[in-house]
Design a protein that fits this description.
The chain has five helices and four strands. Helix content is 47%, strand content 17%. The protein has one domain. The chain is an alpha+beta fold.
Length: 128
Amino acid sequence: MRQTFTLLSVACVIGIAARASDDADHYYQTSDAEARQVVEQAKKGEHHNVLKHSGAVPTKETAIALAVAVWSPIYGRDQIGKEAPFQAIRVDDCWFVTGSLKKGWVGGTAEAVIEVADGRFLMISHGQ
């Protein structure tokens, strides 16, 4: 159930992003100069940053949502959907995220290692 919710959350985010591009004429658009200013401030530590408090990936649900979003274009949405339910295990400052393989089946599932602090993927793989 939780994984279904996570997949639906990712789908909603993708849908919102698609709608945002359709409605671009109706909303204020950040300029390249404004974006550059925020990026420069962030690099210098001068911009408000939640990462200092909880990290970019504080929960296993967030780790799973990120992994599924990255795996789907690589391995195919249908294939990744077959690997649910997903599991995220916190190991020190990283999440190890993997799909599930039914007992008795031969093969592998998608795997990822994601840093808690910044969401950087240290590894993306798929077992055979």
